[in-house]
Write a structure and sequence with these properties.
Layout: H1 7-16, H2 18-29, H3 33-47, H4 58-62, E1 66-67, H5 69-79, H6 83-90, E2 91-93, E3 99-101, E4 109-110, E5 113-114, H7 122-126, H8 139-144, H9 150-162
Antiparallel strand pairs: 1-3, 2-3, 4-5
Helix pairs in contact: 3-9, 5-6
């Protein structure tokens, strides 16, 4: 199956496959977590190079990003602005005391590209987190981005194919 990259198509298909994906999540929870991690990481390594994130930028349009104090300092240095000014313009503190970007879409998204790419936040670097262990333990979060991220969508669909998972 060729990769699907069109966000509108992905959103429609995600709506149709909502029940199927709920059942798939339960199915995956019963599988060997290590084997699933290996499969997901292999599929991710195939899919990710075929998706140009600068043609999408949907994660930057829709995700709340946590920021560490060190990242805020690095951003201030990168922008050549005082830390207090950077926090005032771009970062707020959540009720739990976590620093977060204060705008969705992200302030630093321009034409689907990140204007602070070399200094982007760790959560941005790591997204969509498919290279990490414990895929089956993170399924709720991953599937919540299934309709938003072409990489996640295609990795999940290829995982279904490889597991010969029966459609809903």
């Amino acid at each position: 199956m060729p990769l699907l990259k069109d966000l509108e198509q992905i959103k429609v298909i995600a709506g149709v496959k909502e029940s199927e994906n709920d059942a798939f999540r339960l199915f995956l929870k019963q599988q060997n977590s290590g084997l699933i991690d290996d499969m997901v990481q292999a599929i991710n390594a195939e899919v990710t190079p075929q998706i140009d994130c600068t043609q999408c930028g949907n994660c930057c349009r829709s995700l709340m990003i946590n920021v560490t104090q060190d990242e805020a300092v690095s951003l201030a240095l990168h922008l050549g602005q005082p830390l207090a000014s950077v926090k005032e313009k771009y970062i707020e503190t959540s009720a739990e005391g976590q620093l977060i970007i204060n705008s969705i879409p992200c302030h630093f998204l321009h034409n689907s590209s990140c204007t602070i790419y070399t200094e982007r936040f760790n959560e941005c670097r790591e997204f969509p987190h498919l290279h990490k262990a414990n895929f089956t333990g993170r399924l709720f979060g991953i599937l919540s981005y299934y309709s938003l991220c072409p990489i996640i969508f295609n990795v999940v669909e290829k995982l279904k194919e490889r597991l010969t998972y029966p459609a809903g």
